[in-house]
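User: For a teaching handout, I'd like to show students what a predicted protein-ligand complex looks like in C-alpha cell form. I'll give you the sequence and the SMILES for 2-oxoglutaric acid. Please answer with just the structure.
Assistant: Understood, here is the input followed by the structure.
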Amino acid sequence: MISEDTVVQYERDGAVCVRGLFSQAWLELLAAGLERNLAEPGPHAKTYTEAGRPGFFFGDYCNWQRIPEYRQFAFASPAADLAAAVMRSTKVNFFHEHVLVKEPRTEDRTPWHHDQPYWVVDGNQVCSIWLPLDPVPQDVCVEFIKGSHRWGKWFTPKRFADHDDHPSREGETIPDIDGNRHEYDMLRWALEPGDCIVFHALTVHGAPGNSSATNRRRAIATRWTGDDARFTRREGFMSPPFEEVTLPPGEAMDSPTFPVVRS
Ligand SMILES: O=C(O)CCC(=O)C(=O)O
C-alpha cells in the first residue's frame, strides 16, 4: 500500500503525505457523515470562531458510534491499513475521529500543539491520518515541525479557543513558533481530494485559517493506536475525556470504545 521510503519518512520526520489513497466514494461517504455531524453536533462539539468574526471554525469528535458513515470508514476504508503500515504494527485499534472544519474566510488559527499530552494513551505507535475533503492549497494546510516527535518533549495542552495553556495541566509551554519561524523546519503540502497526511501523536503541528473566499476546508482526522499503546489517565484536562471508559491504566486499548480493526 505504501513504500518503505514513506514509512522511513514518517519515522524520521513525524509526518508524511500519502497521495491518492482514498477514492471519491470514501470522500463522499465522509462528506455525508460530516454534514450529518454539522446538523447534529455531538456533546463535545465546539465553535472556536467568536461571534461577529468571519468564517466558522468547528470541531467535534467521538461521534463514530452514532454516525454510520464514520463507522464504516473506520472499519472498512484503507485508513486502518495505512495506520498499520506506518506504525509497523500488527494490530490497529481505532482511537477516535476528530472533525475540524474551517469554512471560507475563517481567520482562526489552530494553535501549535502536539496531541499525545491531550490523550488517554501512552506508547509510540499512535498516529493520526488528516484527510481533507476539499482541495487544500499549501498556505491553508496544517503545518508540522519536522522531527519534533523525537524532541523528547511533552508540552502542556493548549486551548484551541484562546491558545492559552490549559490551566489544569502542568508542564512546559510550547515555544513561540510563529515568532521564530526561521528556526524551524516545517512541512506542509498542497493536497488534492484523496491525499492525506499521516503524523505521529507527538509531532508538533498547527494550522492557519482558511483564507479562501469560496472554498471550504473540511478535514477529518482519524486517530489510531498500535501494538505498544496502553490506556492511561493524566492529571487535569484531557481531550477527548473518555470518562466512560473503565479500562485500568496500563491495559491494552482493546475495548468497545477503541475497537481492534486490524489484527
Ligand atoms: O485541522 C486542523 O486545523 C488541525 C488538525 C489537528 O490539530 C489535528 O488533527 O490534531
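For the handout, you might add this sentence: Residues 98, 100, 110, 115, 128, 130, 142, 205, 207, 219, 221 surround 2-oxoglutaric acid (CB under 6 Å).
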